Each structure stands twice: as structure tokens, then as C-alpha cells.
Amino acid sequence: MNTWDQRFSRSSAYLYGEQPNQWIASALPELPKGAKVLALADGEGRNSVWLAEQGYDVVNIDYSQVGLEKAQHLAQRRGVAIQTEYADLIAYPLPVAHFDAVVCSFFHLPSQYHALVWQKVIDAIKPNGYLLVQVFSHDQLPLNSGGPKDPDLLYRLEDWQNMLCSMQNQVLQQCQTQLDEGSLHQGVANVINIKSVKQEWCDNEH
Ligand SMILES: C[S@@+](CC[C@H](N)C(=O)[O-])C[C@H]1O[C@@H](n2cnc3c(N)ncnc32)[C@H](O)[C@@H]1O
């Protein structure tokens, strides 16, 4: 059992709530029914289930087996189907140019893996597909509204500017927001919001 399995198994409650992350729900444009959407590191599945309710074909890839089981329970309870895949996203080879959108809230991993993992994620998006992300920025460290306490797991805007240089960035901003997501994300928080579109000419050749 990894740390996330332990956290998610402490209670039957959903630690980040059962509603989607507000940035994702408000910024994701309407996609055609059946669009393929990757809910990246979506743990207990709050974004995945909301995406399935919009009529999309959703896969939640995460390395918490307990989180993925809770995600399937939530989907069943809400009467939708989602796919769940157990994988460590650092090592996992995502399919190339496969998803119409990738959405992600609060996936924090050691900074040495940021460029590697996010490049794979960008490569996995189809031309004209979307990337929607909300993560904690470095300024979140002194606040107690959620997020890791190891600064190496937090993000800087400059890192994203580099990592997203091949994308058309409609929103790439560091800002304060009011979180009200389950028991672990409550209060004013410093986040980075991203809404990017994969450029048509970006042909995944590196
Ligand atoms: C803070 S939780 C956020 C869960 C979900 N995105 C949400 O906002 O409700 C972080 C999630 O990232 C997952 N995670 C962290 N590192 C991972 C990795 N290397 N591979 C796959 N999943 C990972 C954890 O299992 C956990 O579900």
C-alpha cells in the first residue's frame, strides 16, 4: 500500500469531495459526445465521474488501487461508466495523439520528473485537443488549505512556461482561489491554472 492508498482507505468519504475541480469544470469547453478524455492521476475519481456524466469516454490513470476502487464505486452510484487503469505515470508509456483532452487537478510529483511526465502528457493529446490543469504553486507552502509540504513537489509558473512551449496557452496563470473540495482542500490557496490547446502542427517528433 502506498501513501495514497493509506490516505484513501482511512475513510469511506471522498477526501477531495465528489464534485469536479471547479477550474476544470468551468474551463473545459464542450467536447463531442464520446470524446476520449484522460483524467490524469484522478485518485478517487471526482473529475472522471463528472466527465463521464458529460458523455465522454473517460480513463482515470492513477497509482492508488484504493483510489481507483473508490472511483468505480462513485461512478456506479452516479450511473456512469469510467475506465480505471493502475499505473505509475512516471514509467507509464501514454499512447501518442490519443486523447481529445487531458484534465488534471493536483498531481504533484518530484520536480526531476516534471518535464518527462508532462511531455508524455502533451504527446498524448490529439492536435487541437485540450490540456486543463490546476496545481499548487510554490506560494502555497505557508498556507494550510491543502497540498504537499515538500517544496520539491510544488510547481513554478516558469516551469510550465517551458513545458508548454509547444502548446497554445489560452490560460497559464498563477492566482489565488478559494478551495472547497472535501476535507483536504479548504480555504484560500495559491494555484496555477492551465488551459492549453495542442497545436495542429505539433507532430510529436522530438
Ligand atoms: C492530491 S491527489 C489528487 C487526486 C485527484 N486528482 C483530485 O484532485 O481529486 C494526487 C493523486 O495523484 C496520484 N499520484 C501521485 N503520483 C503518481 C504517480 N507517479 N503515478 C500515478 N498516480 C500518482 C495519487 O495516487 C493521488 O490519487
What does this structure look like?
This protein has 206 residues and is an alpha/beta fold. Helices cover 26% and strands 31% of the residues. It is built from 6 helices and 7 strands. Helix 3 (46-53) links the parallel strand 1 and strand 2 (57-62). It starts with a helix and ends in an 8-residue tail after the last strand. The model has no long low-confidence stretch (mean pLDDT 96). The chain binds S-adenosylmethionine. S-adenosylmethionine (SAM) is lined by residues 4, 16, 21, 41-43, 46, 62-64, 67, 88-90, 105-107, 109.
Keywords:
about 210 residues; alpha/beta; 7-stranded mixed beta sheet; 6 helices; globular; binds S-adenosylmethionine
Question: Into which percentage range does the β-strand content fall?
Answer: 25-35%
Low-confidence stretches: none
**Residues in helices, as a percent range:** 25-40%
Topology, number of strands: 7
* Helix and strand sequence: HHEHEHEEHEHEE
**The biggest beta sheet, please?**
7 strands, mixed
Bound molecules: S-adenosylmethionine
Would you tell me the structural class of the helices and strands? alpha/beta
User: What is the rounded distance between the termini?
Assistant: 36 Å
Q: Number of helical segments? A: 6
Strand order of the largest sheet: 3-2-1-4-5-7-6
Overall body shape: globular
- In round numbers, the mean pLDDT is 96
Please summarize what this structure is.
The protein has helices spanning 3-9, 22-27, 46-53, 65-78, 114-124, 157-163, and strands at 36-40, 57-62, 83-86, 99-105, 125-136, 167-181, 185-198. With 206 residues, it is of the alpha/beta class.
